[in-house]
User: Fold this.
Amino acid sequence: MRRAIELKRDGAELSPEDWSGIVAAFMDDRIDEAQMAALCMACVWRGMSLEEAHALTQAMVASGDVLHFDGDVVVDKHSSGGVSDIVSLVAVPLAAACGAHVAKLSGRALGHTGGTIDKLESIPGFNANLSTDAFIAQVRRIGCAIAAQTSALVPADKRMYALRDRTATVPSMGLIAASIVSKKIAGGAHAFVFDVKTGRAAFMQKPEAAAELARRLVEISTRFGRRATAFVTDMNEPLGHSIGTGLEIVEARNFLSRNAADSVTLSLSKGRVYNLVLPIVAAMLAAAGIDDGESRARSALASGAAYEKFVEMIEAQGATRATLESMEPLPNPQVVRAQQSGYLHGIDVIRLGNLGRELAARNSLAGLRVAVRIGDRIEKNAALAYVHTPDSVTLDLAGAFELSNQHPPSRPLIYPSP
Assistant:
């Protein structure tokens, strides 16, 4: 192992046999965490080739079980992490309502980003810990399931990721790609759609780096015989309107049911979320052999079929329609107001994401609802956000919204194909 660390430190490439042996030895405790952390840091500094990332992916998949779906094509969708990213909550039942089979293994929150499993578990009674047999059976029976990764699936990734999180070695493109694809392969789906975030609150802040990660995800998936499509999308501001586990469920519910309680929620989420969900769902449907994806998705939203599929999914996993429909943000929110007039130039998304996680940890229906978008003209004292807190602590968040006399340059929601 010492020789492998020295090689990576000096910029050399490790062989597939090296990576296979390293992962196996790490799982058998023949390599300790200090050595593995040193190797991960060398990968951050020196990078990893596509061949190395593929070899590490293979080794991590081999460390545990792999699910198998027979018959129809099963698709999965993955986001690299964002703030107010409710796309998975919407896209999975929407694609299923259009005839696709969707098997999604999701993770929990990391840093300032929200976790799909944490959000779903804010619905009282929801069970994310499905057995392998129950997960496969649900996908076959109703067309979709969102569940937590079991300990039997890519345990090497789970152990390595926890170590990387503790040792500041997360931002390595090769390590990220291997981590993501290994979980997708183990989850058993035949095709993947990746949503790689870029911008202020993304792990890949530069569009060029996000595009490179997107290409790697597709290339490694293809080497495993899987179909894959990748999008690079903006994360310079919250994608949706709400930040917080339960609040994001409420927004996803309202989006799917087209029954938002207030016009701000619907107008803000409809723009960005709607414009991202449609092409992602279309890509999921295309992977499943279903044409006219965007048209089908619009119809499933308008008819209510997508919402009924969402309810069917959460009921299959232990929650109820009545409980879902009774969820609302904590009352009497604090209003964050603009201290001057101007155009909204930027939002401290990481600050808002961290606060949303902190508040939701105290009450699942606490968090924030953002009332503005970058580029909006804002007058002094106008509402910027609503903060739903479980106590009377006053929060000063006006500084998280950057105002200027000049209109900011425009930027795309979806970047050109990588």
